[in-house]
Amino acid sequence: MEKDTHTAITAPLNSNQSAVDNKDIKSLYGDDYLKWKSWGGESDFAKIKKTEKSYFTAEIKKTNHSFPAGSSVLEIGFGNGSFLTYSKEKKWHICGIEINEELVKTAIGCGFDVRHSDNLMAFDDNSFDLIVAFDVLEHIPQDALPNFIKEVRRILKINGFFIARFPNGDSPFGLLNQNGDVTHITTIGSGKIYYFAAQSDMEVIYAGGEAQPLLGTSLLHFLHRLIALPIKKILGIITNLIFFPRSKVSFYSSNLTLIYKKTKPTQQPLST
How far is the C-alpha of 14 from the C-alpha of 147, rounded, in Å? Predict the structure, then answer.
């Protein structure tokens, strides 16, 4: 099992209370967690592999939107910092948030605009063209997710996008990722993707298996994917026809990706 390359941020339960208190955060996402993740100091932070570049590019391509230099981007739970570097290379204005203080200190030392936070309340409405959360939603209590996504929507610009990746709750092939981290507490399948979108008034642009690009991988991974991907595709078609004829389930993907788009202004509460 590949460990998540990003860590999590918890969502606020309401405007005055965080989902996880400081003591819980320290015990769950402290030094032991970083050691288990194999995340080191500044010398190892924000390194990005060709496979990661190819992966990020493939996921963002699903938006069918171009993000030019100067685009405002937020990463929720930046973890090892690889997407921060990816964004910097794209010349985006990238901001990151994390709940692990050591990661925040390391990122600041590397020159990134990041902050230590477990919520999005510090950001103004309509601030970002793109928000990403890789390996984050599974860390957030399910009853807090609707509020969390509404907050994401609030700080997105009109026609802005939200991309998230998490273990596949539709398939047993997602169990290794879901159960491989003690901080994972919520399982998400395709049905919940559409439910949360409806709750937050977001348009679903994509809901399905994570990208598995061939380019940028090692020769061994290239050959493996070259053989495995067509087999998974065929098996997926057969499985859906037999077991899920009325649904489109990415049964053979270990992770799911969702892409939401904010197409309408955030409704302001009525004044009293």
Answer: 8
